[in-house]
Design brief:
Radius of gyration: 20 Å
Structural class: alpha/beta
Number of helices: 12
Helix content: 25-40%
Shape: globular
Bound molecules: adenosine-5'-triphosphate, magnesium ion
Strand content: 15-25%
Strand order of the largest sheet: 6-7-8-3-9-10-12-11
Amino acid sequence: MTAPLLKVRDLNVRIPTPAGVLHAVRGVNFDLMPGEVLGLVGESGSGKSVTLRSLIRLHRPPIGMTGTVEYGGQNLLAASEAKLRDVRGGQISMIFQEPMSALNPVLTVGEQIGENLREHKGLRGRAAQERAAELLDLTGIPSPKARLADYPHQFSGGMRQRAMIAIALASEPQLLLADEPTTALDVTIQDQILRLLLRLREELHMGVILVTHDLGVVAQTCDRVAVMYGGRLVETAGVNSLFHAPKHAYTLGLLRSLPGAGEHRRPLQPIPGGPPDLRFLPPGCPFAPRCEYVTDECRAGEPPLLEVAPGRFSACIHHDELPALKPTLAEVGA
Ligand SMILES: Nc1ncnc2c1ncn2[C@@H]1O[C@H](COP(=O)(O)OP(=O)(O)OP(=O)(O)O)[C@@H](O)[C@H]1O
Ligand SMILES: [Mg+2]
């Protein structure tokens, strides 16, 4: 059997705040296989970005990280800074949710792509220029050669995001961490970028963790999905099985809050209530206060993520009682 590209075990991130410690990521476990695209979904504030950043140890003290992130036989959470610098932006690239904060305002877009090409691919001069233009072109930026000389502020929001994608892909990474990579983009460009990611997955056997709010994007792009709630993974499954038969009441709620497609169009059913405060979590299942299936058992203690069917993990006590969903939801990506 192939070894996982990434093995995450008992990952915890604690952020001290004036009002108490915010436990943003709580005991997260998952594997990512080479060439696999894993979607990470969940409401705003569920801990997706904090999780992604912790995988390459981007948090600084006083933010605390524990657990292991095994990549290439090393635990990145315990690796030397030198090793991490080598891995980051090279073997593991990240597309940040906020393109402006990730781009360097005083270097041209061409220089920033060039930097990666030089450092990680050994390309210089004309060869680097040509490859940089090619990368911009791949992300759908018009007149890519001319745009290499522009600074990030001369790009629109959507173009910055694409420039960041070009920088991230320049090193031809083994693992791409993509935090809402297509959110600011219109549908045509979004499609183009997602197709590009899928092609690179084929060509480079690149693994991808794709954070997104958009379950349509998940259906279109991902092999597997991890659903995050209150800093924990509450369900992981293959895309089709998750969309057809969710095994966590929260996942069911997420899917029901999607607009149906075509003749299946039906009213949206938003999940009542709001996400939990990660500084003051209730003792039981964090979803219990909003859950229509809740029983006393759910409030008694936090249910662990268990394998409830082959390849399917759920932290819902009532996973067996949830209804299967008709093809409507599988159509979200169609
Ligand atoms: N630097 C920080 N200081 C304090 N709190 C933080 C910090 N970074 C994140 N948090 C908190 O950690 C929790 C998880 O945040 P995170 O950014 O991971 O959410 P998310 O799932 O990515 O949400 P979104 O979908 O809105 O991007 C939130 O409660 C957030 O307010
Ligand atoms: Mg985020």
